[in-house]
């Protein structure tokens, strides 16, 4: 469901010649759990091993909540929020015509944003899912206080309890204690899966169920990706081919940044999810590619200039090309043709989008000398989402271990969190 095309780079031969022994060694670190951070590899076979009873329970709780509400507040930040939002937007689009709207909070400390959401909720029947693995992160913690209080004042304490769900650690953290004390329905984030690898756990799956999304299709895509990335072989494992290509662009050709480009606005949050995955996994010990993202053709009218003619040998592009769009439409013919666009009436929007993509690759890679990796995505739906996240997580583990770092910790993030606690005079800091 994802094919890697290296034609518009100068790395294809190096990828072909890359040491099979090295790939086999790193593959074994991932599959046999022998590398750094090996206690955080629960995601590798998650599509097959997750608890089916837990999923059945999530479906029941989500269906009950869907009956009562028109708005779900998803409280979380980083790995506790990006996956659900990436999935929701990629699968059902930016203006979903569904009974339940999802609103994301706890991902900012902006008082203005929090107040605006609070005002917006005044006439809404809302529920809350509070997601935090540690259960101690400041942003979701303080946002939850506000919205819990608002919900309790609106519907009463007992009804509020029935509309709040916690997704957190099985045993520890302030959210776990709070959920137990208040009697919230609780789903568990497994110990061996870190935030940015957790989208297919209740972290992503529960809000997506409330949004009416087909999570079975997500798991079916995840299983396919698991099978397609099982071989320690660059000729058949496309995720590893992508990992090696970007690794070599970095360490052999000296590129410092990778921008993931989508031609679909509803994949913007998917690229945000990808940024956390690669940025937090690889950006340590003075190593790693800086992950950035663009949406074209939107950003061609802003950043396109820099990519074409700005500083060279810093940035390469990885382009997502979606073969089959969710919808397509023709350009209507106009009797007066004052805008001169009747020549496009034989084409669809998607065809024009693809022609733009081809023209831009030619401009950037050939004239601009900015290498372009192309990832061919079959489509843009729930199955594709499950496939893509599983595929990228496997690629990330491979490229992280090639860099000889621990892809599964985030010591830098912890530094800022602890500093903030200190400055805020949190007891114990
Ligand atoms: O990758 C990480 O661990 C972080 O970015 C977390 O995802 C983020 O800080 C949220 O943490 P928590 O789920 O513990 O609230």
Secondary-structure map with pairings?
Elements lengths: L1 E7 L3 H5 L3 H12 L14 H4 L2 H17 L2 E5 L6 H11 L8 E5 L5 H10 L5 E7 L5 H18 L1 H7 E5 L5 H9 L2 E4 L13 H9 L4 H14 L9 H14 L5 E6 L5 H15 L7 E6 L8 H6 L5 E8 L26 H19 L4 E6 L4 H21 L8 H13 L6
Helix pairs in contact: 2-16, 4-10, 5-10, 5-13, 7-8, 11-16, 12-16, 13-16
The structure holds 5-phosphoarabinonic acid.
Report on this model:
It is a single chain. The chain is of the alpha/beta class. The chain folds into 2 domains: 2-34 and 219-402, Rossmann fold, CATH 3.40.50; 46-213, Rossmann fold. Helix content is 48%, strand content 14%. The chain is built from 17 helices and 10 strands. It has helices spanning 12-16, 20-31, 46-49, 52-68, 82-92, 111-120, 138-155, 157-163, 174-182, 202-210, 215-228, 238-251, 268-282, 304-309, 349-367, 382-402, 411-423, and strands spanning 2-8, 71-75, 101-105, 126-132, 164-168, 185-188, 257-262, 290-295, 315-322, 372-377. The strands form 2 sheets. It has a 5-stranded mixed sheet with strand order 1-10-9-7-8, with helices on both faces. The protein has a 5-stranded parallel sheet with strand order 3-2-4-5-6, sandwiched between helices. Strand 2, helix 5 (82-92) and strand 3 (101-105) form a beta-alpha-beta unit. The model has no long low-confidence stretch (mean pLDDT 97). The chain binds 5-phosphoarabinonic acid. Residues 77-80, 132-134, 137, 140, 194-196, 280, 410, 413 line the site of 5-phosphoarabinonic acid. Residues 77-80, 132-134, 137, 140, 194-196, 280, 410, 413 line the site of 5-phosphoarabinonic acid (PA5).
């Amino acid at each position: 469901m994802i094919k890697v095309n290296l034609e518009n780079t100068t790395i294809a031969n190096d990828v072909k010649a890359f040491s099979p022994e090295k790939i086999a060694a790193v593959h074994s670190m991932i599959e046999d759990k022998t590398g750094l951070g090996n206690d955080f590899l629960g995601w590798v076979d998650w599509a097959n091993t997750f608890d089916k009873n837990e999923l059945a329970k999530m479906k029941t709780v989500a269906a009950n909540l869907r009956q009562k509400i028109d708005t779900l507040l998803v409280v979380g930040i980083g790995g506790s929020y990006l996956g659900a939002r990436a999935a929701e937007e990629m699968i059902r689009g930016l203006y979903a015509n569904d009974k339940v709207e999802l609103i994301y909070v706890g991902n900012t400390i902006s008082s203005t944003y929090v107040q605006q959401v609070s005002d917006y909720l005044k006439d809404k029947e809302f529920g809350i899912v509070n997601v935090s693995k540690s259960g101690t992160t400041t942003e979701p913690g303080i946002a939850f206080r506000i919205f819990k209080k608002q919900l309790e004042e609106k519907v009463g304490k007992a009804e509020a309890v029935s509309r709040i769900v916690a997704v957190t650690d099985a045993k520890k953290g302030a959210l776990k204690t709070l959920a137990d004390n208040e009697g919230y329905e609780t789903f568990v984030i497994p110990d061996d899966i870190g935030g940015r690898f957790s989208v297919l756990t209740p972290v992503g799956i529960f809000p997506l169920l409330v949004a009416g999304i087909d999570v079975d299709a997500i798991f079916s895509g995840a299983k396919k990706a698991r099978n397609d990335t099982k071989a320690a072989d660059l000729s058949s494992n496309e995720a590893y081919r992508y990992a090696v290509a970007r690794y070599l662009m970095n360490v052999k050709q000296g590129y410092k940044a990778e921008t993931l480009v989508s031609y679909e606005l509803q994949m913007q949050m998917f690229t945000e999810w990808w940024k956390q995955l690669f940025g937090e996994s690889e950006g340590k010990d003075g190593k790693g590619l800086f992950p950035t993202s663009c949406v074209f053709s939107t950003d061609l009218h802003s950043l396109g200039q820099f990519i074409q003619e700005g500083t060279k040998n810093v940035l390469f592009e990885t382009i997502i090309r979606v073969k089959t769009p969710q919808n397509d439409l023709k350009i209507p013919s106009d009797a007066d043709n004052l805008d001169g666009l009747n020549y496009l009436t034989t084409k669809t929007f998607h065809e024009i989008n693809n022609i733009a993509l081809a023209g831009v690759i030619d401009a950037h890679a050939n004239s601009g000398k900015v290498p372009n990796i192309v990832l061919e995505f079959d489509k843009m739906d729930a199955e594709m989402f499950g496939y893509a996240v599983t595929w990228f997580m496997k690629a990330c583990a491979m490229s992280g271990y090639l860099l000889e770092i621990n892809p599964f910790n985030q010591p830098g993030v912890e530094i800022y969190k602890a500093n903030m606690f200190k400055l805020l005079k949190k007891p114990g800091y």
